[in-house]
């Protein structure tokens, strides 16, 4: 794998709930906090809107990692959406684990007020995946 | 457990009595000249067979989108078929009010593609025949529920070679009342026992790609899966797969693409979608013209994912499908 590809072009697709995590990313922007360019956000009305099919598609079509992020349990704008998200994404992680690619998927809870937490979470994920890739491991 | 012994044509008599009523049907197996297959009987049974030693299709497939109130249907099928029926009831794709589901102890089956002439037709002999697991197809070898313990009632074989019918629900009582004779205590020990848990399935993308190399994306596996439940599959048409420039762009970004494109995507998505409802029947594999070991993956993944919620598909009518419910306090490890 060329230096180029491992260093610069890695991409992480994040599905972020429009009521909390996406708001946190906007706040991070207005506070001029930096997070890696390769993190691409897809705004969803609720984390439970994320059909695991979207995540699988992101990975199989080239993303190095994907995350689903929503409000903390108990704080869902739609009352209980994120509880369903948790079950689905936990199960999807188990499936990714069975295919030995567990590290490609994360689940975060980030509220609208947690700009710093948002930056830490996505930067951490980005760096870990980059390290693994540079070490020649894709999983 | 209460039950009635059912030797000497008693089950046929009972079903025929049920069929005397207009708008009563039985879905079970029919013995043909040199094969056994599904049949919906009306009026009376003809060449009925309680056991089917070959597997082609999971019979629950025929019941999808069935909302036939007023027509009473008795199912006399294998455990994997009754389990798929129960999942479809929970997915509100079958109206179960007028259906009585009876599962029959299963000894295993050979693939309908690989039938041989030496398979016996008598229950006791069938049981002996399948003592060697190599004689069954793979899905049956690793089947997690061969016992007729699911549905409204079950027909089971005891250690002495006698068949017993036992009710599990109120509808099951109705079924039992059709059988002649007095109910008594059915023996506690039956000849088919619960299976032991197997190891967690594990693989990687390389092995997966190798196994699915020959897939032609005909989607027969999806069409013959009894519990692949989406009314409108994302893989109907090619909207879900990149086309034209987007497709070229994808290849340029990812390096290279196996063709037909989208097969890994299709199978992984289907695997997740059926992960809580898959009954491990192997109907997908039977339907595959390319001999792809689908059951290994679908059953392997679904057992892991059902295990997370201590769920077993089709075991009971009341247990909710895990993705349709939740606990407020659970899955702490899921969060990163
Ligand atoms: S999968 Fe199980 S229940 Fe179904 S035919 Fe095979 S052994 Fe019987
Ligand atoms: S995925 Fe295959 S094994 Fe599972 S229920 Fe469907 S047809 Fe049966
Ligand atoms: S039936 Fe076989 S060839 Fe057809 S899509 Fe399924 S796995 Fe591929």
Q: How does this model look, in words?
A:
The complex is a heterodimer of chains A (139) and B (336). With 139 residues, chain A is α/β, with parallel strands linked by helices. Chain A has five helices and four strands, in the order αβαβαβαβα. In chain A, helix 2 crosses helix 5. Chain A is globular. The two termini of chain A are 14 Å apart. Mean pLDDT of chain A is 91; it is low at 1-7. The longest helix of chain B has 14 residues, at 294-307. Chain B is an alpha/beta fold and 336 residues long. In chain B, strands 1, 2, 3, 4, 6, 7, 9, 10 and 11 form a nine-stranded mixed beta sheet that branches. Chain B contains eleven helices and eleven strands. The chains are: A alpha/beta (139), B alpha/beta (336). Bound molecules: iron/sulfur cluster (3 copies). One iron/sulfur cluster binds next to helix 2 and helix 4 of chain B.
């Amino acid at each position: 794998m060329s230096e180029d590809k491992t260093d610069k072009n890695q991409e992480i697709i994040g599905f972020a709930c429009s009521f909390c995590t996406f708001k946190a990313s906007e706040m991070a922007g207005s506070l001029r906090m930096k997070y890696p360019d390769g993190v691409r956000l897809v705004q969803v009305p609720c984390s439970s809107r994320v059909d695991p099919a979207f995540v699988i598609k992101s990975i199989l079509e080239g993303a190095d990692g994907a995350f689903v992020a929503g409000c903390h349990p108990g704080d869902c704008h739609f009352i209980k959406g994120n509880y369903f998200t948790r079950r689905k994404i936990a199960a999807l992680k188990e499936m990714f684990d069975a295919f030995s690619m567990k590290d490609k998927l994360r689940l975060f809870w980030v509220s609208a007020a947690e700009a710093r937490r948002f930056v830490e979470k996505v930067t951490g994920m980005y760096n870990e995946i980059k390290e693994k890739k540079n070490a020649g491991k894709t999983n | 457990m209460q039950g009635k012994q059912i030797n000497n044509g008693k089950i046929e008599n009972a079903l025929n009595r049920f069929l005397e009523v207009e708008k009563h049907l039985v879905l079970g197996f029919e013995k043909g000249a040199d094969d056994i297959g599904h049949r919906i009987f009306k009026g009376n049974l003809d060449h009925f067979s309680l056991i089917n030693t070959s597997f082609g299709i999971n019979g629950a497939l025929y019941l999808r989108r069935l909302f036939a109130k007023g027509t009473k249907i008795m199912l006399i099928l294998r455990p994997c078929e009754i389990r798929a029926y129960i999942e479809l009831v929970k997915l509100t794709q079958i109206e179960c009010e007028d259906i009585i589901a009876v599962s029959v102890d299963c000894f295993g089956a050979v693939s309908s593609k690989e039938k041989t002439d030496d398979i016996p037709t008598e229950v006791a002999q069938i049981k002996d025949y399948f003592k060697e697991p190599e004689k069954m197809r793979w899905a049956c070898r690793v089947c997690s529920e061969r016992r007729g313990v699911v549905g409204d009632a079950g027909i089971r074989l005891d250690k002495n070679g006698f068949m017993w019918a036992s009710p599990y629900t109120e509808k099951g009582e109705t079924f039992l009342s059709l059988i002649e004779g007095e109910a008594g205590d059915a023996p506690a020990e039956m000849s088919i026992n619960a299976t032991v848990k197997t190891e967690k399935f594990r693989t990687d993308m390389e092995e997966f790609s190798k196994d699915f190399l020959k897939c032609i994306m005909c989607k027969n596996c999806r069409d013959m899966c009894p519990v692949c439940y989406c009314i409108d599959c994302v893989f109907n048409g090619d909207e879900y797969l990149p086309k034209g420039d987007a497709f070229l762009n994808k290849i340029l970004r990812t390096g290279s693409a196996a063709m037909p494109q989208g097969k890994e995507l299709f199978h992984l998505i289907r695997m997740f979608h059926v992960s809580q409802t898959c009954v491990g029947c192997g109907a997908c594999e039977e339907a595959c013209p390319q001999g792809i070991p689908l059951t290994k993956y679908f059953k392997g993944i679904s057992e892991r994912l059902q295990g997370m919620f201590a769920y077993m598909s089709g075991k009971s009518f009341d247990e909710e499908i895990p993705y349709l419910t939740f606990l407020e306090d659970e899955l702490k490890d899921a969060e990163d």
